[in-house]
Amino acid sequence: MTTPPSESRNEAPRTVPDRLLAGSLRRHLDTRWLGGKIHHLESVDSTNLWARTLARQGAVHGTVVSAETQTSGRGRLGRGWVSPPHRNLYLSVVLRPALPPESVSQISLVAGVAAVDAVREWCEAWIKWPNDVLVGGRKVAGILAEVEASGAKPVVVVGIGVNVNSTADDFPEELREKAGSLRLALGERLDRARVAGRLLTHLERWYDRLAAEGFAPVAAAWRERSRLIGRAIRVREPAGEIEGEVVDLDTDGSLRLRLTSGEEHRVVSGDVTVVDGYA
Ligand code: BT5
Predict the structure, then answer these.
(1) How far is 108 from 17, CA to CA, in rounded Å?
(2) Phi then psi for 240, rounded to 5 degrees?
């Protein structure tokens, strides 16, 4: 493969594989049920959409879909996810939870905690509500959990995008200040199979913990990793902008906010800015 111009200078020779092969990913997995089946695609519209199709066709709990690139990577609320080829992780996991319906938003927080724990194996990282992973104040990972309710029991598809080896050139102008990658933080390329293996391993552990012990340990982990409780935040909601102090994370994954009026408000969706800046 020829080296793209943006990588030609100041770069050590490639010692890290370019492709994320299912076999190498499997070698880095330390799981019991997650990743029993791995579908790795060169290109797909969205790994979440592919995983939902597989779920409708009966894919087993723990099935993983990953791709080298996405042509329509999806974020929350109809937003997009920038997915340059061969650089990052675009993964979706099919989960068939033996858990109550309200656990869906909890599963999405489980994925956030797992993602931050995986990233922390390489560098300091924090969660921004609901479950963006930030490194040095820049978003390096995002989670999209969706319910596929076709059969008798709902299936949850958790999609995780992690910017592993992206350079600033990979991001459109408007994201350059906001988006980051592990490579940008560490100054070196990483083996994506290893990062994926650690991510899925943490995901299985946290998911099993939710199933065995309920939401309390997940919520505690989330609180510790977000450092958001007690902070003043501004939230851009569909209905307008509000400001207040974070009281706590609720059991459904929403944020409890005390407004300046003293009133309590629940933040279910929207974009959060920490008033005095995020770590
Ligand atoms: C998310 O949405 O953060 C969820 C992203 C989930 C992506 C994964 S990739 C595998 C799976 N398959 C999919 O199709 N999706 C999932 P949200 O909080 O709405 O953030 C989206 C916003 O983040 C965008 O509007 C941009 O501002 C920004 N953004 C887009 N691409 C980015 C990237 N690669 N890195 C950092 N920020 C990005």
Answers:
(1) 30
(2) 140, -170
Whether 69 and 98 have beta carbons less than 8 Å apart is answered as no
DSSP assignment letter at 105: H
* Cβ(142) – ligand 1 distance below 6 Å: yes
Q: What is the 3-state secondary structure (H, E, C) of 234-264?
A: EEEECCEEEEEEEEEECCCCCEEEEECCCCE
CA of 159 to the centre of ligand 1 (A): 10
Q: Is 250 exposed, middle or buried (0-12, 13-18, 19+ CB in 10 A)?
A: middle
DSSP state of 173: G
Question: Across the 279 residues of the chain, what is the mean pLDDT of every consecutive 10-residue run?
Answer: 41 63 87 97 97 96 97 95 97 91 85 98 95 95 90 88 97 96 97 97 97 95 92 88 93 91 90 77
Distance of CA 166 to the CA centre of its chain: 16
What is the number of the ligand 1 atom nearest to the C-alpha of 46?
14
